[in-house]
Amino acid sequence: MRLLVIEDYAPLRKAVVRALQEAGYAVDATGEGQEGLWYAQSNDYDLVVLDLMLPGLDGWSILRSLRGEGIQTHVLILTARDAVEDRVEGLDLGADDYLVKPFALDELMARVRALLRRQYQSKSPLIKVADLELNQATRQVRRSGQEIDLTRREYALLEYLALRAREVVSRNEIWEHLYEFNSQAQSNVVDVYIGYLRKKLDRPGLVPLIHTRRGQGYWLGEEDS
Amino acid sequence: MRSGHSLRFRLLMAVMTASAVVLLAAWAALYLLVRTSLLQELDSALVQQAQVMTSVFEWKDGRVDLELGKMIEPQKTAPGDHRYFEVWQEGMGPLARSPSLAKLRLPRPKGVFPSPQLSFAELPNGRPVRLLAVTVRPRWEGGGEGSTQGENRPAPRVTLLLASDLERFETSLTQLAYLLAAVGLAAILATAGGAWWAVGFGLRPMRALARRIEDLGEEDLSRRVELPAAPTELLSVVERLNQLLARLEAAFEREKSLLANLAHELRTPLAGLSFTMEVSLSRPRSPREYMDDMSQCLAISQQMQGMVDNLLTMARLDSSREQSPGACYVDLAEALEQVWAPFEDQALRKGLSVAWEPAQGLSAWADPNGLRVILRNLLSNAVDYSDQGGSLEVSTNSVGGQVKISVANTASRLSSKHTDRIFERFWRGDQSRSGDQAHAGLGLALSRQLAEAMQGNLEACRDAQSRLLITLSLPGTPPPADSAE
């Protein structure tokens, strides 16, 4: 999952980015409105966390531009303005949720997870693909009832594939959703992580769930027999 | 507020008093007029009768012959109009008197009355009468009146007293008084009714205005008083009221946005503080990470403290119009040098070319602490907001008893149409919080207030190189004693 944080107050921005990264999301961040809009326009984010009072271009204008261009990325507004009209204006402009500062870590994380689930049309934090189970809230993964220990990056990759189960996902899409904008990672890291996941998930004796479609990408699910 | 009598009551009382006075005057004038004319009529009747009576007095054979046989009693002209007479001869008793007088005596004035004299008098029984007294010499029989020709003894003087009972006169006047009183009362009642209606009609726009004002909600200041077809006297009231409402609304909006800004400015660092700590505590970390988080939190709380200090100072300056108490001569070059020290490294890192040109030996009459706060704000803004590799110029000069400190810096991010807005509280425009900098948009607002408290001012403009130029003007000498009451 790749997220964008646009917040001009540096200490808060740093803390939010850190919290999201520690939760396993790839996070881009900026403190300037115009730059934020440019980031949101040029990358396919799963969620934008947006402050309203920004230098350069305010949050409302960013939201208006994004929705005006048909970009449907989910937007969570973070703001110190709690007047009802501010909230209504934000939601009317196409924001998906609203969080008033100061907010708790757990609440931010729960709202981020909820919006990401909505992004992939899922109401429950539990994703099931064949005998594979992912709990997005606790980040636990089980296959045939057996818990599987994954690293942050591995979990993020599996979650992305699971959310788009039975769909072929290109290497490029995976890369975009897992890595930050200015990441130094090479594009073949996707193949490397797919290899790690296969080793942990598709143990001998189990039906393989991760499949390669040559020249197109990967997909997760049970092959029709 | 203590309420007085209603406007209608006051106007009514005024109208009633005025009409009562006018009526009373008219009443008195009419009464006097009628009385005078009645009296004249009475008097002329008396005079006429006296002439008739005296014309028949004769002096014959050394005695006065009154020839009154035919008219022992004066004619009655009307019921109640009794007339009485007495005739006296000089040096002798009464020659004759009306029988109707019986034993009564007419009051007898002293002296002689060549022409008829009229006066009010009273009979011994207390009846008021109009009394005429006239003295004549009886006619010499066959000759002219009182003539002495051909006779040794001149005719003696004879005085006629003629009295008319005033009963009828007084009855008429009393009737007139009752009539006038009745008419007057009716007129006053009619005036009261008319005035009640007229005053109510005249006050109708006032009542309409009062209702409109009552309708204005306390919450909604955007409404205005509308009074279509308001009389000219009320037009200016309505206009003033609406101007007042507009000013109130503007002040209220300013206050509201100040509060909203204040909430934002306090909530944002609070959110940063609590969120940093929460994230830090969310899992075990290395001492290095904890130290970083702690110093981050410290920086945030220091920033908040600075902001709260600024706000408190401003609130104090807002509430008291006192001048800065501890003013003294402050050497400007020295003060600038001291304040500049902590910014020197930062300016170097930013690659600013600094032109440092304060004149030596120039002093301002100012509160040293307040001056330091202003200078720190000016220099901190100049360093933080000037462009990377830009220029910064600090200079001082003295103009006509005032000293001026000018700080100019390149600030391409501040659009020139916003130059004058930089003194608004919480205004930040394009140049927002840059990183951890503690600029809450209060510094310049506070500085201006401080400068004004020191009898100076703080102004911003663009200089010839289109840099932002902020000039602080301060008095160079203490103010004259009389202005420092």
Task: Please tell me about this protein's structure.
The complex is a heterodimer of chains A (225) and B (485). With 225 residues, chain A is of the alpha/beta class. Chain A is 40% helix and 21% strand. Chain A contains eight helices and eleven strands. Chain A has helices spanning 10-22, 33-42, 59-68, 84-92, 105-119, 152-163, 171-178, 189-201, and strands spanning 2-6, 26-30, 47-51, 74-79, 97-100, 126-129, 132-135, 140-143, 146-148, 210-213, 217-220. Chain A has a five-stranded parallel β-sheet with strand order 2-1-3-4-5, with helices on both faces. Chain A has a four-stranded antiparallel β-sheet with strand order 6-7-8-9, covered by helices on one side. In chain A, β8 (140-143) and β9 form a beta hairpin. In chain A, α2 (33-42) runs parallel beside α3 and α6 packs across α8. Chain A is elongated, with a radius of gyration of 18 Å. The mean pLDDT of chain A is 87. Chain B is rod-shaped, with a radius of gyration of 54 Å. Chain B has eight helices and 15 strands. In chain B, a hairpin with a 2-residue loop joins β1 and β2 (63-65). Chain B starts with 6 loop residues before the first helix and ends in a 10-residue tail after the last strand. Chain B is of the alpha+beta class and 485 residues long. Chain B folds into three domains: 7-145 and 154-173; 232-319, Signal transduction histidine kinase, dimerisation/phosphotransfer (DHp) domain (Helix Hairpins, Orthogonal Bundle), CATH 1.10.287.130; 328-484, 2-Layer Sandwich (Heat Shock Protein 90), CATH 3.30.565. Chain B has helices spanning 7-55, 167-215, 232-281, 287-319, 332-340, 344-349, 368-385, 443-453; strands at 58-60, 63-65, 83-89, 94-97, 117-122, 128-136, 139-140, 158-165, 328-331, 353-357, 363-366, 391-399, 402-409, 457-462, 468-475. The A-B interface holds A 8-12, 14-16, 18-19, 22, 31, 53-56, 80-83, 100-105, 108 and B 260, 263-265, 267-276, 278-279, 282-283, 296, 299-300, 428, 430-433, 435-436.
